Amino acid sequence: MKSVRAALVAYGRIAAIALAWSASASVAAAQEQAARAVTYNGQIAAILNAHCVSCHRPDAVAPFSLSTYAEVRARARMVATVTRRRVMPPWKPAPGVARFLGERRLRGDEIDIIQRWVAAGAPEGDPDRAPEPPSWPGGWMRGTPDLVVTMDAPYPLPAAGEDVYRNFVVRVPTTRARFVQAIELRPATTRGIHHARILVDRSGSARRLAAADPVPGYDDRHVDRARPPDGHFLGWAPGTVPNEVADHLAWRLEPGTDLVLKTHLVPRGEPTPVQVSVGFFFADTAPTATPAVVQLGSQTIDIPAGASAHVVEDTYRLPADVDLLAVYPHAHFLARQVEGYAVLPGGARRPLIRIDDWDFAWQDEYRYAEPPRLPAGTDVVMRFVFDNSAGNPSNPSRPPRRVRFGPRSTDEMAELMLQVLPVDPADRPALVRGVSRHVAQIVLAGSRHALAAAPGSAALQERVGNDLFAVGQVGEAIRHLVAAVRIAPDRASAHYRLGTALATIGSSADAMRSYRRALDLRPDFVEAHNNLGGLLHLSGDLDGAARHYRRTLALDPAHANARFNLGNILLGAGRFAEAEHEFRATLAVRPEFADAHLGLGSALAAQGRRAGAVEAYRAALRLDPNLSEARRLLALALGRREGGQGFRR
Fold it and tell me: Which phi and psi angles does 614 have, rounded to 5°?
């Protein structure tokens, strides 16, 4: 009996121990389960902060905010759906092709965590586990800019109508050269803004065009002198995250430069004021390298209605070894697949970018995490596939219609721009010239394609003539320009372009007649005045030349060529102080103009200002070491100083 009792007692102890262990295990299991449970504060907020909140926050580009639990909880099912389908965050390049900086792609485990959280009812979790929210100083994505500039007044985008292509000029108040690492656009509202290209203008031409228009900005059809910063392409679309270049690749912003925003605006059903601020982020040191842009594209796009796999391609062969820094593809609604790749000299194919589900609303510049090196002789290839069928949900035309190349949203475009850095800086000029020739051929092919459909168009005859002239086919250019003035005798621009082509082949008298006819039709035709002045100058009619140069400058005070030419006339006439003024005004617009430095040196030397003349000659030789006249005059100036003869002061 005692043994039974002892056994029962022992069993009781074991049971007690077992119950205690079981309770402990249950607590541990509960704690482990709680630790594994997905909550907003535990896991979800950190994922959204890293990938989504840069756009989905108050006053940012997205249509709603996801920066608090309440905001996310209200849209939890939608968040689960768009992340599972990889629609959001919007990162279009196909995985495994290339690695880019700033990828917004969610990992598979992050997508799984979001799905589990929503399936569990989207719990908030322990507030103490909430991560620190990201900071957005003043609403800027990259932090506080070093300089902010804003359009003077908003542009009133109408509620309805055709797409609007409007250029806005923003003054940049800097009194010294700055070196730009990044810029960020912040519109008052992104509604109605499809995208913008960002250019710079030191000539003042864009500012004058804007001042002449009663509405903010000016129409994109006007010709200005705005250009991309040397070796850079700058673009923006809603949702674009501003990219930053390394200090040694920053671009130079000179005093007196205007920023020109070439915008594509789309009416959205209600009047919308468009006003944009631009934030500049500067490097502390001057750049030491200058990239170049390789542009591929097509202007002969002609997609039949119903075509579901229309291919557009272009190829350019690199003349030098380069490192590929960034890529920017551009197309409209019908593009389905966008691809760029390189065929190396040995035949191997290297992918550069591929987007399998192109979206007109999500266009971006992509910078390589590890820039690939492409050797000389590499063919870079653009291959875009367009779907103009009813099965394309993005097709804006119902039923589908024939679509050709053009700037409107309902037209199509195909462009692939590559930012490259030549391995040997000495190769850059040849690369830039080669790309310019390639782009000129793209443009010429497009104008010929358009003319074939409308041979009786004076505008297209003129356009083909101009594009032929650009590639050096002057005789054929003249034939088309003669056709343009025959079809439309009152077309001033066609007479002007015909005059320029005739001057090139030495038919000066005929060229002057064409320029004078252009000026009869349009007395304020700036380039016609300048070019007629140039022909009069060459003919020895210096008074007539000076009159037309001065008329050019009255219309366009920043016209560097007219300033330079007038300076040479004044220099030859012994009016040295006036010549100095014109050469300095030339260099204020074009500081890289070697011949203007040479002219300035001659004007200073003639006034006995030896030190200034030597400095100007040296500046000319730094810009153009082959400028023999600058070398001769510099040697003469230094020889006189060393011989003790001196200059008159």
Answer: -60, -45
Query: Exposed/middle/buried for 551, CB within 10 Å: 0-12, 13-18, 19+?
Result: buried
Q: Is 509 exposed, middle or buried (0-12, 13-18, 19+ CB in 10 A)?
A: exposed
Q: Nearest-CA neighbor of 169 among 159, 155, 157, 156?
A: 155
**Nearest-CA neighbor of 261 among 361, 406, 149, 146?**
149
Distance CA 261, CA 193 (A): 12
Q: Which helix (H) or strand (E) holds 193?
A: strand 193-201
Nearest-angstrom CA–CA distance, 178 and 164:
32
- Give the integer Cα–Cα distance in Å for 303 and 452: 16
Fold equal for 147-283 and 294-426: yes
Q: What is the mean pLDDT of each run of 10 residues along the chain (649 residues)?
A: 46 46 48 68 92 80 86 94 90 92 88 94 91 80 91 95 92 92 89 87 88 92 84 81 86 92 89 94 94 97 98 98 96 96 97 94 88 98 98 95 90 96 96 97 97 96 97 97 98 98 97 98 96 97 98 93 97 97 94 95 96 96 94 86 37
Amino acid at 92: K
DSSP state of 41: I
pTM: 0.82
Among the listed residues 205, 210, 241, the one whose alpha carbon sits nearest the alpha carbon of residue 362: 241
Segments making up each domain of the chain, as ranges? 1-34, 40-134, 147-283, 294-426, 557-649
Whole-number CA gyration radius for the chain: 32
3-state helix, strand, coil in the chain (%, to 5): 40, 20, 40
Classify domain 294-426 at the CATH class level: mainly beta
Six-digit token pair at 502?
């005739």
How far apart are alpha carbons 110 and 124 in whole angstroms? 17
Please state the φ and ψ torsions of residue 91, each to the nearest 5 degrees: -125, 105
Cα-Cα-Cα-Cα dihedral sign, residues 144, 145, 151, 152: positive
User: Residue 164 in 3-state DSSP?
Assistant: strand
For 321, residues 6+ apart whose C-beta sits below 8 A from its C-beta are 373, 374, 375, 376, 422, 423, 424, 427
Q: Are 624 and 429 in contact (CB under 8 A)?
A: no
Is the distance from CB of 304 to CB of 388 less than 8 angstroms? yes
How open is the CA angle 220-444-324, to the nearest 5 degrees?
80
3-state secondary structure at position 180: strand
> What's the CATH class of domain 147-283?
mainly beta
Q: Which two tokens stand for residue 41?
A: 């504060």
Return the residue matching tokens 């064409």.
514
Tokens 């000076």 identify what position?
546
What pLDDT score was predicted for residue 444? Answer: 98
What's phi and psi for 132, nearest 5 deg? -65, 125
Q: Are 381 and 341 in contact (CB under 8 A)?
A: yes
Comparing CA positions, the residue from 321, 328, 380 lying closest to residue 349 is 380
Sign of CA dihedral 138, 139, 141, 145: negative
Structure token digits, residue 62: 């997205």
Distances (CA, A) of 235 to 232, 261, 264, 555, 598: 10, 9, 11, 31, 37
DSSP-H helix ranges across 454-507: 458-470, 474-487, 492-504
Please, what's the largest Cα pairwise distance for the chain? Answer: 141
Give the span between the Cα atoms of 241 and 251, in whole angstroms: 19
Multiple choice CATH, 557-649, 3.40.1080.10, 1.25.40.10, 2.40.420.20, 3.40.50.2300: 1.25.40.10
The residues that bridge with 164 in the sheet, in sequence order, are 265
